[in-house]
Design goal:
alpha/beta, two-stranded antiparallel sheet, 20% strand, globular
Length: 315
């Protein structure tokens, strides 16, 4: 597979899929607009590796995992699947949640010593000499933030990671890392049913040239066809109204694709990281990429279907 560069379209024989790529914040990473979230994959199912390979054929080049997922087995799965394509893909993993010895639960540990130890373990499981994007898997305002930042900067100097960021929806934590670090990305929950980032995060991150990776883009499947139910602070009625409008605007796309295109409409977003477990889910999210993106009119109609809320905690 040839190296994929920014604004290059990747065409696949027999699969009329067109993937577009965006630059991730201040980094030199050019990642697919739709990325593969690996958390839900079954590490013992050989079909999982085939699904990853099929995503690559569709032009997906960013794969997200974490050392927390399945006690590290998720990283092993991804490493096995990507070892023959390593130079052509971008691997992201996360650190900070430390499993207890009996694996009954995990504890939060953002210390430098733990991060420096954990990265070597992740590198081994992923079968790679470097991690493209290393995320702090959470974070609180009471963390030793400068120590945590120092750990990531040390890893960059050592060549073990290329770039780093945080996975957080806490406004106070995000502001501290913007002010005190050289993060390239923030992974945050963002969807048509969770528009909180629109109110205070997206413009701030864009202003500071920090890329946004969205998770929860399909709102636990509610925006992809699952039965409506209350979600966050949205009532059942609110969710039903949102889904109705989404369906009306999904004539040329699947609901899934329209929901993804909603978050991609904002230029602060570099990629929508979608949790995929089956071929059907993969195709529903990607098969309509040849169709036109959301128009400004469609985008406005979707925004009108519910009210954007604000973050109440961690101010």
């Amino acid at each position: 597979m040839p190296f994929i560069t920014f604004d290059t379209y990747f065409y696949v024989k027999f699969n009329p899929i067109r993937m577009k790529y965006r630059k991730l914040g201040n980094s030199e990473l050019n990642i697919s607009e739709i990325s593969f979230g690996c958390m839900s994959l079954d590490s013992q199912d050989q079909h999982s590796e085939r699904l990853i390979h099929k995503a690559i054929e569709y032009g997906v080049n960013f794969f997200d995992t974490a050392d927390l997922y399945d006690f590290g087995e998720n990283e092993i799965l991804l490493g096995n699947a990507l070892k023959s394509n390593r130079k052509d893909v971008i691997i992201g993993t996360k650190v900070g949640n430390q499993w207890r010895e009996d694996k009954s639960d995990w504890d939060w540990n953002p210390s430098k010593s733990y991060i420096l130890k954990s990265v070597d373990e992740s590198l081994g499981r992923l079968q790679t000499d470097y991690i493209d994007l290393y995320h702090l898997h959470g974070g609180t305002i009471d963390d030793p933030i400068d120590e945590t930042i120092d750990a990531f900067e040390t890893l960059k100097q050592q060549g073990k990671i290329r770039y780093y960021g945080i996975s957080s929806i806490r406004p106070n934590v995000i502001r501290e890392y913007i002010e005190r670090s050289n993060i390239s990305s923030v992974m945050m929950q963002y969807s048509l049913l969770d528009r909180r980032p629109e109110e205070e995060c997206l413009n701030l991150l864009k202003k500071n040239n920090i890329g946004v990776l969205t998770r929860g883009t399909l709102a636990k499947g509610l925006l992809a066809g699952k039965p409506a139910k209350a979600y966050l602070n949205h009532s059942l009625g609110d969710v039903e109204k949102t889904i109705k409008v989404l369906k009306e605007l999904s004539v040329k796309r699947s609901m899934c694709e329209t929901a993804i295109q909603y978050v991609l409409k904002d230029s602060a977003v570099s990629s929508a990281v979608i949790g995929i477990r089956t071929n059907k889910q993969l195709e529903e999210c990607l098969i309509k990429l040849k169709e036109e993106k959301l128009s400004n009119k469609e985008y406005t109609e979707l925004q009108k279907c519910n009210k954007a809320q604000i973050y109440q905690n961690h101010r």
